[in-house]
Amino acid sequence: MGRAPGRPGRTIIVIVECNGREPLAYLTDYLNACAAAGGKAPAGKALEQFFVWLPAPEDTGSSPDPAGTDPSDRHAHDGPAP
After folding, report:
1. pTM as predicted
2. Domain map (residue ranges) of the chain
3. Could you give the C-alpha distances from 20 to 4, 13, 39, 44, in angstroms and in order?
4. 8 A C-beta contact, residue 42 and residue 36
């Protein structure tokens, strides 16, 4: 089965792993945050903590992206086109 047009081949699990987080712990934390928000997705700062693909606020952006998650290079790890 091929990918849907316009969708990169990465899953949230791969993105979380590429950014140094353990996927099960990440998903557990997210679901706990949803429960704390009354069964809905968290909002604002409570949601932003789950955007692991964004640079940390203390990151000056002066160093290269060691995880290879540069958005301009997002298809480099997808493998050959179907």
Report:
1. 0.57
2. 11-54
3. 27, 11, 27, 23
4. yes
User: Could you tell me the pLDDT band of residue 79, with boundaries at 50, 70 and 90?
Assistant: very low
The tokens for 16 are 């979380």
User: Distance between terminal CA atoms of the chain?
Assistant: 9
Tokens of 38: 């009354």
**Containing H/E element for 48?**
helix 45-48
Q: Which residue has the tokens 């640079």?
A: 55
Take residue 7 and report the two structure tokens written for it.
């969708």
d(CA 39, CA 66): 35
